[in-house]
Design a protein that fits this description.
Strand content: 15-25%
Largest sheet: 5 strands, mixed
Distance between the termini: 19 Å
Number of strands: 12
Low-confidence stretches: none
Number of domains: 2
CATH topology of the largest domain: Nucleotidyltransferase, domain 5
Helix content: 25-40%
Radius of gyration: 19 Å
Mean pLDDT: 93
CATH architecture of the largest domain: 2-Layer Sandwich
CATH superfamily of the largest domain: ATPase, nucleotide binding domain
CATH class of the largest domain: Alpha Beta
């Protein structure tokens, strides 16, 4: 079974052609800085047709198109329900009609973190597990849940997918979601520069003047022994551990999968989260396994087939 897959994240976009659990081809879509979904849609069609032509395929060879968005979406109706700062016109776009008009294909829409979890369960780190929580660490912090083999969605389609907006510090900074002290507001790609600017002693660090600061720079400086970088890194690790603990207590998973661009530093992140859970989680049945996502940036694309065949 072949399908078109689209993953639009917080700062990236990718189109791909998948066949079952294999990614046959993919290419980036320029979505960085775009606040309008309508502005990105022609690029998606252009990339999709280019990929199909390269493989001597047509849209008729595909079972449908599946798209992941960094938003609260209703997968049952294919509608965007809520966004924050990204694709601000998405609520008003009829994506099902757009896909039918442009490609004559059926369409499925899901939160990007949920699609990534589907991919990891279909052919990645969570294969063979029925109860899974996934954290995605990147521009934001994604969290999503599968219980007894089914994605947790809830009446308003936001159950289990707001892991980055679990508060970890009630006296913390304001989050883009409107809450205070969310994990995302304290240790995500968009909030890291804000945290660093206020850090005591930052002027003495090799990170001084790097604005916007990113996690690759932070972990690199920490690995080289920069004291301030180590302090900020350790704070991020503890915040991610607290967020993971909340997800474990809320959803009772067998395994916690951690993915996202920050996982270039998995050597530091995975042991820290595993240690925090081992020390603090109320799981008398045993220990939750913490594993790195296997599929990297392709996880959401490989969630296309399980999403398309899901029976709502």
């Amino acid at each position: 079974m072949k399908a078109l897959a689209v993953d639009l994240g917080g700062s990236h976009g990718t189109c791909g052609v998948v066949e079952d659990s294999r990614l046959l081809a993919h290419e980036p879509v320029d979505a960085n800085g775009a606040k309008s979904l309508r502005a990105v849609l022609p690029e998606i069609i252009k990339s999709s047709r280019k990929l199909l032509a390269q493989m001597n395929l047509t849209a008729d060879d595909c079972a449908g198109l599946a798209m992941g968005l960094p938003a609260i979406v209703d997968a049952r109706t294919g509608r965007v329900l809520s966004t924050r700062t990204k694709y601000e016109d998405a609520n008003d776009v009829d994506l099902t009609s757009w896909c039918r008009t442009e490609l004559n294909l059926s369409f499925r829409l899901e939160n990007d973190a949920r699609m990534a979890l589907l991919g990891e369960c279909y052919g990645g780190a969570a294969a063979g597990f029925s109860d899974v929580v996934m954290m995605t660490l990147g521009t934001g912090i994604g969290g999503t849940t599968m219980i007894e083999g089914k994605l947790l969605r809830g009446k308003h389609s936001q159950a289990g997918c707001l892991g980055g907006h679990l508060p970890v510090l009630f006296t913390g900074r304001a989050c883009i979601c409107g809450a205070i002290g969310c994990a995302e507001a304290e240790a995500a790609g968009w909030s890291l520069p804000l945290v660093a600017r206020e850090w005591e002693g930052m002027a003495s660090s090799v990170l001084a003047g790097r604005d916007p600061l990113n996690f690759q720079q932070l972990f690199g400086a920490a690995d080289e022994g920069d004291a301030i970088a180590c302090e900020i890194r350790d704070r991020c690790l503890e915040i991610w551990g607290v967020a993971a603990l909340s997800l474990v207590h809320a959803y009772d998973p067998e395994i916690l999968v951690v993915g996202g661009g920050v996982m270039q530093s998995a050597h530091a992140i995975l042991p820290a989260i595993q240690k925090y859970l081992d020390e603090h989680a109320w799981t008398d049945w045993g220990k939750v396994q913490v594993k790195a996502a296997k599929l990297g940036n392709n996880a959401a694309l490989l969630g296309a087939i399980p999403l398309l065949i899901e029976n709502f």
